[in-house]
Request: fold
Amino acid sequence: MFHKPKNALYSRVSRRKFLELGGYGATLLGTGSLAVGFNSVLMHSPVQAASSEEAKWKQYAGSKLVFLSENTPPSFAIRENIKAFYDLTGIEVEILTDDLPVVQQKTGIDLRSGKADYVLNYVQDKPIGAPFADFFVDQSRMFGDETLPQDPEGYGDGAWFENFLTACGRFYDESKVIALPYDSAVAATFYRQDLFEKHSKDFEAEYGYRLEFNNETTWKHVLDIAKFFKAAKESGMDVPYGYAQHQGSFAWTTQLDIQRLMFSHGQWIDFPIDDKLGSKTPGPTNWGDEQSVLMLEKFKELGDASHPDNLANGTLELNTVYQAGNLAMQVQFHEFAASVEDEKTSRAAGGRTAYAPCPKGEPSWIINGGQAVNGTNCGIGGIGINANASEDMQRAAYLFAIWSTSKQNQYEILAGLGGTPTRRSVLDIPEVAAARERPTSMPNALTFDAVYDYGIKDPHFVLGPKIPEANEYHSIIASETQAMLSGEMTPQETADILRQQLNDLNGNYPRRGIRWPVFRPPEIVLVGSERPPVGGPSGRLGD
Reply:
C-alpha cells in the first residue's frame, strides 16, 4: 500500500496518442474481438459448468484488461510475474501504477463518467471505496459460479485476516463484496530496543518505571518517553528525539494518526455508526464532547514533545527520520519493516528495532466510561471491478482478481518485494513461520505478532469512518488539527470547529460563517522521477 519501488514503470498514454498509435488495433485482431474502453479488448469462448478447469481459465483468452493501481508491492510483483497469468488464461493485463491521490482522481473520473477505461481498480478502503462503492461490481455473485474457476480457500471472512474483507470489500451493505483484499498496511509501534535498554536507568530514576514497550504500554507512557528523549537531546546528549506524529500533506495519514489515539481511549469514534460497515447517513458527529477535547489536548502535548519537523513528517518522511537514527520510536505501518531492517540504508537495522502493537489507552485519560484498547488502524487495499464494464468483461476481470489474491501470489510478494499478505493461510507456510524470528529473510514478518496476532483483532481494530464524504472529512481533520498543533487554536476551539464543519458536511445542523480548511492538493510525482528502492527509505501514501 505505501512502498514506492525504484524503476517503477509508469504507463500514461493520452487518448489522443492512443488513437494515433493503436486505437484501431482491435480491428486487426480478427472476428470475435471487441474494443471495450481504454485499450481493453474482449474475446470470449463460452464454457459450461462441466467444462474443465483449464477451459474455465481460458474462456477469455485473447482479451486485454487494464488495471489501475497504487504503486504497491503486489502491483509491481504481479507485473513482474504477469506472464504466469497470461499462460494460465491467455488474457493480457496492462498494469498502470501511480501515487494514491492520482489513482483516486483517475478512478473517480472513470467510474462517475460511466466508462470502463480501467476495468480493474485498486480499492483503498476509505479514500476510494467509501466515495465510490456504488460503482463497483458485487463480486459475491461470482463466488461459487460453476462456469468460473474458484480459489480452493474460498472468499469468506475466514480466508482473510480478521476484518480485512469488510475493511476493503463491504460498504454500507453487508450483503455485497466489492473488492478482494490485495495488500495491507497496519499500524504498529517501531522502537529502538537498544536505546531503550541503554537509557532505562536514567528514565526510571525520573519517571519511576522501566523504559520498555509492550502490549500494556499506554499513550501516557509514550508522552513520557517523548518528553524524556527531547529533554535529553536539548541538554546536549547524543540521543535522538523520542517520537513524531504523521502530519505532512496527505490528509488521510494525519487522520489515521489521531484516530489511533482517540479510539484507544474508550473506543471513541467520530460518528455513532457501525465503524466497519460505514453509513451514508452518519448523523451528528461526536467531536466536541469532553472525551474529544481531552484527546486533542493530549495530541497537542505529544506534538509539542515530538521531533522539530513534526508538522512536515508524513508517512515517508517519518520513516526516513527513523531510519536515519533521529527517532527512538514511531507508530508506523507494518510494511515499513522491510526498509527499516535494511542494513545498507538504515541505522535502525541489525536487531536495533523491536515491534509491538500500537499504544494502549491510558485509563486516567478515559472519561466516557469506555474501554482502554490498543487502537490499531490500517489501509487495506482491494481489487475491485468497474461496474460500467460489460458482464463478460467483469467476468474476465474476476479471473485476475482471484488469481492476484491467491495464497501463492501473496507468499511470493512477501518473500520477494517485502509485501504484506492478506490471506490468513500465508502465515501457515513453514518459511513464513520461521521468518517471524531473527535472522529473517522476510523482515515484514517480524511485525506479524504485533499486527496479525493482536492489533487487527477486536476490540483493538478501528477502521472508519466509512462515509461518502470520506476524503472531505480527512481534509477537515488534518487542516484543523495541524492548525492546533501550530498554536493557531486551542484544543477546545478545534473540537468546536470540527463539530461544526463535520455536521455541515453531512447535512446535520448546518451553520453559517464556518471557516473551512484550506485545500492542500497532493504533490504529483512527474513521470521519470526517481523512486526510493523497496529496501531503502520508502512510503506509499503519497506524502
